[in-house]
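Section: Multi-chain targets

For targets with more than one molecule, the full set of components is provided together so that the structure can be written out for the assembly as a whole rather than chain by chain. Components appear in the order listed by the source. The example entry contains four components.
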Amino acid sequence: MVPLAAAPSRRSGAGPAAPRAPGRAVTLRDVAAEVGISQSAVSMALADHPRIGQPTKDAVRAAAARLGYVPNSAGRALRAGRSSSIAVVVPNTGQHVFGHLYFMHLLVGVTAEANARDVALMVSTNPDESHGVAAYERVLRSRAASGAIVASASINDPNVKRMAEAALPVVLIGRFPHLPQAVSVGVDDVAGAEQITRHLVEEHGLTRIAHISGPLDHQQPVDRYEGFRAGLARSGRACTHSLAIGDFSEESGRAAARQILDSMTDVQAIFAANDEMAYGALLEIRARGLRVPEDVALAGYDDFGVSRLTTPGLTTVHVPAEDMGRLAAAQLFRLLDGTAPEPAQSVVPTRLVLRESCGPHAG
Amino acid sequence: MVPLAAAPSRRSGAGPAAPRAPGRAVTLRDVAAEVGISQSAVSMALADHPRIGQPTKDAVRAAAARLGYVPNSAGRALRAGRSSSIAVVVPNTGQHVFGHLYFMHLLVGVTAEANARDVALMVSTNPDESHGVAAYERVLRSRAASGAIVASASINDPNVKRMAEAALPVVLIGRFPHLPQAVSVGVDDVAGAEQITRHLVEEHGLTRIAHISGPLDHQQPVDRYEGFRAGLARSGRACTHSLAIGDFSEESGRAAARQILDSMTDVQAIFAANDEMAYGALLEIRARGLRVPEDVALAGYDDFGVSRLTTPGLTTVHVPAEDMGRLAAAQLFRLLDGTAPEPAQSVVPTRLVLRESCGPHAG
DNA sequence: TTGAAAGCGTTACCAA
DNA sequence: TTGGTAACGCTTTCAA
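Its structure, encoded as tokens over all components, is:
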């Protein structure tokens, strides 16, 4: 628990507190001494308090600028009872669930919102789900951050339930229908999956479709699978489908595709629950001498960067991670401001992105 | 399991100790009241100070756990005169220079090292280079973070020079040969570029090679270009080469390839200074009906994720961004501990990654 | 072995 | 209109 340095006993020498002029930080007291008024007057002058006269304010600001005064954040946080930073918490397992670029996009959005409020951003990663709570809980309860955005969590994660019940200032990324009191920012995955499925059926006339799902103890793959079935049902055409389960990794997508191609020999299209698995499927399809999209059409989900680079480009559902980050931060600030975020559970829309892997565009 | 919220221990009876307000955080004083000793004794007990007796320590630890005591970071930072967090500063222009995944890898490394020290991590992005200094300087001077890792900077960035001269606890990512007093963690790009170039010449017998460089006011492209020329010179074969300049973006890589293919019609290989530009070149080569690697071999640099996904896979130079993050954090901690990092300017080695784009492996 | 008190930098309240 | 002072939570030194 040593802060940063081993804190050596600084009791060497006989000198009392000898302040090093260049190293020591400039405090309110220094500015007050410079101007010849009290600390509190300086504090209020810098806060533009109406009680302080204009000439005094000018003098204070000039002195502060001259000395290079910057308010000490610890002093301020201690006094205010809350720090001016928020945290983004990322369970490491989340990297495996979402992939790297998702987090980048999210972070860009959160950053934009935090910068606009002059709030600092902490990033906290957890070793795993079981110990996950420790890291973010310390961050919050130590008041290092006054609120947190939790970037990924299993639907069964007990920590999430505890957090929601503890009424901590936390915004969850994802849909948590079973935790109505939790504030969350999710994606309308049911609609997104339905849309892309209907595109395959209705625009390309593909009626024998397999779905590669993620682990079904997470809300996200559940929603995407549900959207897939809804899309088939509402397409107005008779479809046959099959299901394989992966873990969102490219390798698992390849294994799932192997299974599908072996068991459903007349499959016309594969819709994977994320782009990484779709890429794995692409490799497997290729390895069998089949062509995409001529022999088997392919679709993914997420559009975090992988799908643009493959050949052919991957038709997918764009998840607006940056927007989600922005919204999550905005919700968190509402929470911190004491105004209940309305609605508590918000859902952002997706966008269908057509590339080459699903076949020639209808134009 | 410790409850997340401070359990509002309902002392409905006339409790002897003043009951805490339900929302309030648990402080040392609360623990002291619970055990019936003084604040300072609790502080020392938790710090495992030898002057506190074992029974007292046990009682204190039990009470702290029972109440869910977590030290307030502001109080601690104020008292210690330094916060227990470090910052990673990313100029936004850096995203354009490096691309997203680079930053992710770096962050993973920094996080690992920071977690090992129980130090929190702040991420600070800057609107642009000119205002860049403001953000990180405020973070440092406000003592919100006690040190910073600056993730990307132009060789000409005046802020970098100021920082180095101000002797702030800062570690730069990159090579800064003209700032010998700055602590930095760079990549041996000259060696990496030389190695891949010699591979193209010596293993594949390609002697007419073009290089797509990045902007030459950054150290990185300068080094890679130098390595390219060194590789040609030391290959022991007569080579002809040409140069085109991009800005690290895929689009600029495509434009550069266009220029190369127009002017050097017998080009056998293109070596781009990063993978994104190599990918742009791939698109342009394809668009002309040429094949990679049969007609034109291709090589990139960075290996942050793009190169694995392309078809064919891109031969490239792996930059160990995660290692760099770890090392940069370690150097920063040395700086903060007062031990001069040795050497101040460290350089990590690269690794040649052979995929399909450079031609059949010699095996 | 432990308690009391000072002080880190900031802001809010009360007195002048 | 302004200045003094107390208090936020923590650690450390001096006193008992």
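The mean pLDDT of chain B is 86.
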